[in-house]
Structure formats: C-alpha cells, structure tokens
From TrEMBL:
This is NLPA lipoprotein. InterPro entries: Lipoprotein_NlpA. PANTHER family: D-METHIONINE-BINDING LIPOPROTEIN METQ, LIPOPROTEIN. Pfam families: Lipoprotein_9.
Length: 279
C-alpha cells in the first residue's frame, strides 16, 4: 500500500512540475506585441531597452495598418498583446464581438485630441455656419463631439454614448456644419474648412504638437478617462504574469523620459488602475 501511495505522490509531483514548467515556459517566451503608427516606434524602443532586459521580457513588435485587424489578430493569437487603442475603442470593439473578448492589462497614456485651424487663431469668435472636419470612425467621431461640447461649442444629450454621432447633437448655437472624413485626410481638408478635429497621432504626423498648436485640447481628467490608451490581450490571457509586466515596463522613468523627448510631451502618461477607466 505504501508503495502505491509513494508512486501516486511521485506521479502527482511530476504532473505538477510539468505544469509549472509549462506555465513558466509560456510566460518566458517572446511576447509578440501588435501595434500601429507611432506605437510601433515606442515598443520597438522599449523592446531593446535595458529596462526590458532587467525585467526578463523578450519582445517582438508586429506592425499593423488597421485597428480591427489588429484586435482580431489578438483574439486569434497571432499577436499576444496589442498597444494602440483607447479604452473607448476597446469597449466599442468588444461590444461588437459575439465570440471572443479582449481584456485591458493596464493604462499607458492619453494622446490629447485637439481642435485646430488654419484660418482662425482662437475659439472666441466662431463664424456662424463654420465648417468643422471630423473623423468618420465611431470612436473618434464621438470623442471629437465630446471635445466640442467641452469647449462650449455644442451641447450633447445626457445619454450620449461611445457610439454617438453628429446627428445626436442637442444644440448647435453656431450652426456648425460638419464634414466627415477619414482621420488621416483631415489635415489636408482643413485648408478648405474653418476647424478640424485631429487625433494626436494624425496631428503629430502632420507636424503639429497638440500642446502648442491646438486651439483647444483634451486634458487628463474624469471626462477623458475612456480616451486613455491601454494594453490589451485576449481574455484567456488575463492572468499571464509576463503580459502584465508590460505595463510596469512602460512606466519606467527612463522609458518616460525618452517618450517625452521623442514626442514633445504629447504622450501624456496615465498610470491608473483599469478600475479608473470603468468608473
């Protein structure tokens, strides 16, 4: 009997040992981070940084051109973690998914959206019937309208949500006329418009610094928390320890110092728990 108990104990120890090794192997592997535009540059820098090496994180960065494709690649396991989307975009994507969800691992930064103009120097004297170019994708259209409301140019209904549109505007005292377009075409279209609402990545690529060149821009506060960018992964990976270390790595002082210098302070650090975004 003792021999059988001993064999069973050894067998259990072997199984548990193999499971632990399997888990460690999974968490020690190279992490494939899918990213877009400037975030590709950021994570390629982080991947080569001494900080990543000290934390034992091996990172590969894969560049994408489309956010939906990147999120799908995250769900199907083609990439492990993605670094590109705001919490609002993440929510909108998850809402549309019938099979498979993503989870947020941690916060990274707020890229302030701004109101820009090639014709006007401020928002004090808005021409009646002024033309505003706004992004035609759900997340950025909603965000742009909320920024206009924060600036006092329009009002929105109390139930305005993450998929709100121009048609939902409650009052428009300046009779603003909206022209919807792909966000990366807005800088060019602004030449024939009064104002343009630019996501920071688009503004940065057009040679604009939101903190210096925008007439009005978002600040880090309760009203913009859903616009904070996050790291995300497939729900099945929510407890992966290595993936969760990426947030800590991102907020290392040396990484933040490089980011500030590289992007002129336009990647405003937000180091908050995910619960902050949900409140």
């Amino acid at each position: 009997m003792k021999k059988w108990v001993g064999k069973i104990a050894m067998g259990l120890a072997l199984v548990l040992g193999l499971a632990a090794c399997g888990q460690k192997k999974t968490e020690d592997k190279t992490i494939n981070i899918g990213s877009m535009v400037s975030d590709v540059t950021i994570w390629r820098h982080i991947a080569k940084s001494p900080e990543a090496k000290k934390m034992g994180l091996k990172i590969k960065v894969t560049s994408f051109q489309d956010g939906v494709q990147l999120n799908q690649a995250t769900l199907d396991g083609s990439v492990d973690v993605n670094a590109f989307q705001s919490y609002a975009y993440f929510q909108a994507f998850n809402k549309e998914q019938k099979a498979g969800k993503q989870v947020a691992l941690g916060t990274t930064y707020l890229e302030p959206m701004g109101i820009y103009s090639d014709k006007h120097k401020n928002l004090k004297h808005i021409p009646d019937g002024a033309t505003v170019v706004i992004a035609n994708d759900a997340a950025n259209e909603t965000r742009g309208l909320e920024l206009l409301a924060k600036a006092g140019l329009i009002t929105l209904p109390k139930n305005f949500d993450a998929l709100g549109k121009v048609q939902d505007i409650q009052s428009n005292p300046h009779h603003l006329k909206f022209k919807e377009a792909q966000d990366n075409t807005i800088p060019r279209l602004m030449k024939d418009a009064d104002y343009g609402l630019l996501a920071n990545t688009v503004a940065y690529e057009a040679g604009l610094n939101v903190l210096k060149d925008a007439l009005y821009h978002e600040k880090v506060d309760q009203t913009t928390r859903k616009n904070v960018n996050i790291l995300a992964t497939a729900a099945k990976n929510k407890d992966n320890k290595a993936y969760r270390k990426l947030t800590t790595l991102y907020h290392k002082p040396a990484i933040q110092k490089w980011l500030t210098k590289k992007f002129g302070g336009t990647k405003v650090e937000v180091q908050k728990p995910i619960s902050y975004l949900k409140n």
